[in-house]
Specification:
Structural class: mainly alpha
Oligomer: single chain
Radius of gyration: 38 Å
Strand content: 5-15%
Number of helices: 44
Shape: elongated
Length: 995
């Protein structure tokens, strides 16, 4: 009965010691190789203290079984009697399956962990070179490398070294390995070595003395001819040596590989020569290099080969690195570099990415390197290739807030420690946090989280990632506020010059003005200033993401000056997560939306309401406008009230359009550009109709009370009738009236003329709002004809005199205001004209084509580029609309779907009716949507209407951002526009002109 009891006791003890499979662990402890120590309580406690007791015990049994009978007693005696060896060996076995495999293959290598001297506790490059000295072939080099790696891992998991020291040791071991590999390559080709001088420059984490356990080792090779040798032959020899060095480290042998040596950071990358002379390197960097290449050179360090040549290389490129911030394209490059590129990470892995994911290691490294580039040109203390050292120097110099730096320091160390332990397990290059529960448990325990390792690990990881995410942007901007707010006496601050340099590097064209705005917003001890200091670091980052950060900051100051004393404004921005970002996007996207907001600052409340950016219905708009007009005591006051509604609703529409086009941190940009165009067209058209209805009510009331002597209707035509108005479109209309019973026709006509004149007068009263121009030039006889006709007069005219172009203009006619019944009867009157039975005759088709050709030759502005004019240019709005309208006039009598005033709906109906293939319909639709968005963008950016892309570089960039093109890609935008419209014109030539 004692055996079951003893086994049960062992089972419980193993469970309490942290074993997840006590039954299997008990069998392993019964292995013959552990017979002399299995009952030793010290051993079980030591196993229980490892990251993975089960893994540690399996590795120990394999190691013991691999010993010779002579060596086994030494291992076991040392294991139970020497605590340093026990902790180191079991710590490694419990954290790394790969190193346990190495020890099973090389059972005497455990003895590398026995010594416990000062040099062993903190070895340097010399000690690692000594450890690799006896390796004379690639296989021996791998064995020796892993023996050294074993000692690094042992110090790491036991806490003898911290994460930064471990990374530095790994970099030193890599340096020693590169030197050993070059020694082997030289020995294999002494004639090549005699012909050249070759220096190996470490880049990336190796160059920065912060290497991972498993990582590509980035290098650049520099070669020179020895005296008397021909340069091209010397470079060929150096290339052979460099290639051999790379193979020695990278190729897989019976002992596996060490790590890939990656030379792709060299000039021209993979397309450039593997080895260049120093002068060739300098010529490239001075003429062709991009900003990211100077960022990479921050970490350049000579590690192997000719020491003098390596030192010359570093000395030559260092000044170029610190002058990078003065390059002409530095700001644009920085803005592109600052945008995270996570598109290549599979969606399922983004949340597990420790390096590239949001709040990952790359965020910290990039932020630190960017600040080094900006400020290192005037402060040599920042010239460090090591992230944590550079972060410390930035904090000491006041370039980063001390509290922020401390939080980032802790977060970076934790994330690097996670990365080290994840890679150490199987010595594989990965940055993904595991999903398996056992892997997470081992990872958590390896980091000292023992109570609930998985839950504690996830909590700590998310907390540190959140810190990085939150501080990544604030890191750039908070010191700017500290520099101007003048709080906390004695704290080191950015100098005005350094603050200006940083703002300039982040895209601000006028740093001095920007600093004045920051000072005005954030100085003082008031609650308002305190909230602004909290908001501004984030807002400044959002402004910098736009094409015009200066305008965004200026707009924010103006809005804050106007609303700063209202209790809800700053509370809205502080507490409503989306409101502040939405405001930043709107203020920095162009002139129109900020101008509208400045005249109605209270509309900022719309940005914090989830429903605030949704367009309102036509009925709701008209009801609000008519109610406001009814409360006014004069026509002028009535139209002012209507304009107030229009101003607010235009801002709502523009803000929603900008935010959907730019996207936010929580929601990506709208991909359906057609939906964006339709929303703007519907909203602006409904708003225009409601404003005209209000002006009509005001004009009637001031002269006749509630009832006009004649029934009166406003018919929208052109873009207005098609629900396709843009921000800068005129309102094309026709006016129709019908005398009421008993009213003389002359009196009725005079009343109609008077009401039109009064409407126009009221709508054209001087104002800072965008004008609402009523254009009646599409009426019968054009400008030569009467401004308003009776319904019977229209009927008589159309019956006798109507021209083809007038029937075409009526395709988009729709009642928008006034007498509903009269409007409907007008539509009944014109339907047979615009949808003629049996379609158009050949003469009519020829006439439409002739008019279109004449318009193309005569109406395009002189000097305008026909490939970039959105309205009249090749494949632009006119081309698509005339093509669609020709199809409507030919086929709408038989196809009810074509009887619509909307271009896109008619295009879709034509495809459904089999009148054009899907591909051609899509080509025309894309061109029409793109041209419409260009016109909307120009109005949003410039604050005035335009049909061509702006010539000003900053305005052009802002149009590009609205259309979805990042900074620096306006050339691509123009190319895409030309390509899209060229394809559309080809379809127009076929369908419209019959080419």
């Amino acid at each position: 009965m004692t055996v079951p009891g003893r086994r049960s006791s062992t089972f419980i003890r193993l469970l309490r010691s942290g074993f997840t499979d006590p039954t299997h662990a008990a069998r392993l402890l019964d292995a013959d190789a552990l017979a002399s120590v299995r009952a030793d309580p010290v051993l079980l406690d030591a196993l229980g203290a490892t990251a993975d007791p089960d893994l540690a015990l399996r590795g120990l049994v394999r190691l013991a079984e691999a010993q010779t009978p002579e060596d086994l007693p030494l291992l076991l005696d040392t294991l139970v009697s020497a605590k340093p060896l026990r902790d180191r060996l079991l710590g490694v076995l419990g954290a790394s399956e790969a190193l346990a495999d190495h020890l099973a293959r090389h059972p005497r290598d455990w003895q590398a962990l026995v010594t416990y001297e000062a040099a062993d506790l903190h070895p340097g490059l010399a000690e690692f070179e000594q450890g690799l000295a006896d390796a004379h072939d690639p296989v021996a080099l791998r064995v020796a490398y892993r023996r050294c790696l074993l000692s690094i891992a042992a110090r790491d998991v036991c806490g003898t070294t911290d994460v930064a020291q471990t990374a530095a040791e790994l970099a030193d071991l890599a340096t020693a390995t590169l030197r050993a590999a070059l020694r082997m390559a030289t020995a294999a080709a002494p004639e090549d070595a005699a012909r050249c001088r070759l220096a190996v420059i470490a880049m990336g984490k190796c160059g920065g003395n912060e290497l991972n356990y498993v990582s590509d080792v980035d290098v650049i090779f520099v070669g020179e001819a020895v005296p008397g040798a021909e340069e091209h032959k010397a470079l060929q020899a150096a290339t052979r040596l460099a290639s051999h060095l790379m193979r020695i480290c990278s190729e897989t042998t019976v002992e596996g590989s060490i790590w890939p040596v990656d030379a792709n950071l060299r000039p021209e990358g993979r397309n450039g020569p593997l080895v260049r002379t120093l002068s060739s390197h300098l010529a490239y960097y001075q003429r062709w290099a991009k900003t990211w290449e100077f960022q990479a050179l921050l970490k350049a360090r000579a590690v192997a080969g000719d020491p003098d040549l390596g030192a010359q290389y570093v000395a030559a490129i260092t000044p170029l690195v610190w002058q990078a911030a003065e390059r002409e394209n530095f700001v644009a490059d920085v803005q592109k570099m600052r945008r995270r590129v996570v598109d290549n990470i599979p969606a399922a892995q983004v949340d597990r990415e420790l390096k590239l994911g949001p709040g990952g290691l790359r965020d910290v490294e990039f932020a630190v390197q960017l600040l080094q580039l900006v400020h290192g040109r005037s402060d040599a203390t920042l010239h460090s290739g090591t992230t944590l050292d550079a972060l410390h120097a930035l904090a000491a110099g006041g370039y980063v807030g001390r509290a922020d730096a401390a939080q980032l320091h802790d977060a970076y160390r934790f994330l690097r420690a996670m990365e080290h332990r994840i890679q150490l397990y199987r010595l594989r290059r990965t940055h993904l946090v595991p999903e398996d529960e056992a892997d997470l448990r081992r990872l958590g325990r390896s980091l000292g989280l023992r109570t609930e390792p998985v839950a504690e690990l996830n909590k700590a990881w998310r907390r540190h990632a959140s810190v990085v995410r939150r501080l990544h942007e604030k890191l750039f901007y908070r010191p700017l506020l500290d520099a101007v707010a003048q709080l906390a006496p004695g704290e080191t601050r950015l100098s005005p010059r350094a603050a200006g340099q940083r703002l300039e590097a982040l895209g601000y064209a006028d740093p001095a003005s920007a600093l004045r705005h920051l000072e005005a917003l954030s100085s003082g001890v008031s609650r308002k200033a305190a909230i602004q200091r909290t908001l501004l670091p984030v807002l400044l980052g959002w402004f910098a993401d736009s094409a015009d950060p200066d305008a965004g900051l200026l707009g924010f100051r103006k809005v804050s000056d106007a609303l700063g004393k209202t209790p809800w404004y700053l509370r809205l921005l502080r507490d409503e997560g989306a409101a502040a970002e939405n405001l930043a996007r709107v203020l920095s996207a162009g002139r129109l939306a900020p101008d509208l907001l400045m005249r109605a600052p209270e509309a900022v409340a719309l940005l914090g309401d989830p429903e605030g950016l949704q367009p309102r219905t036509h009925e709701a708009l008209e009801q609000e406008v008519l109610s406001a007009v009814g409360r006014a005591d004069s026509g002028e006051a009535a139209v002012a009230a209507a304009r107030g509604v229009r101003r607010r609703e235009l801002f709502r529409t523009a803000a929603a359009d900008i935010i959907a086009s730019y996207g936010t941190e929580d929601s990506p940009a709208e991909k359906d550009c057609g939906a964006l165009v339709d929303r703007v067209g519907d909203a602006v058209s409904d708003l225009t109709a409601a404003t005209i209805a209000g002006a009509l009510r005001a004009a009637v009331r001031d002269h006749w009370g509630e009832t006009l002597p004649t029934r009166f209707a406003v018919i929208g035509v052109g873009r207005f009738g098609g629900h396709e108005l843009g921000y800068g479109s005129d309102a094309d209309v026709l006016f129709v009236h019908e005398p009421r019973e008993g009213v003389d026709e002359q009196e009725a006509a005079k009343a109609a003329q008077t009401v039109i004149a009064e409407m126009r007068r009221l709508l054209q009263l001087p104002t800072a709002d965008p004008p609402l121009l009523i254009d009646a030039d599409l009426r019968p006889e054009g400008r030569s004809g009467p401004l308003v006709r009776t319904l019977s007069s229209y009927a008589a005219y159309y019956r006798r005199w109507s021209l083809t172009w007038e029937s075409q203009a009526l395709l988009r006619a729709e009642p928008v205001a006034g007498d509903i019944d009269l409007g409907d009867r007008f539509i009944e009157l014109i339907d047979p004209l615009r949808y003629p039975v049996e379609g158009l005759g050949e003469d009519a088709v020829r006439e439409i084509r002739r008019l279109k050709a004449r318009m193309e030759s005569e109406r395009l502005p002189r000097g305008a580029d026909p490939t970039l004019h959105a309205k009249l240019g090749r494949g632009g709005l006119s081309d698509v609309e005339w093509t669609v309208q020709l199809l409507q006039m030919q086929h709408a009598w038989a196809e009810p779907g074509l009887r619509t005033t909307r271009t896109r709906q008619a295009l879709a109906a034509a495809h459904s009716a089999g009148l054009l293939p899907a591909e051609e319909a899509q080509v025309l639709d894309e061109a029409w949507v793109l041209a419409t968005r260009v016109r909307n963008a120009v109005m949003l950016v410039r604050g005035r209407a335009g049909d061509t892309f702006p010539s000003d570089a900053r305005e052009l960039a802002a149009v590009g951002r609205y259309l979805g093109y990042p900074e620096g890609r306006v050339g691509e935008m123009l190319d895409d526009y030309r390509r899209t419209t060229r394809r559309a014109r080809a379809v127009v030539d076929e369908l419209f002109y019959g080419a």
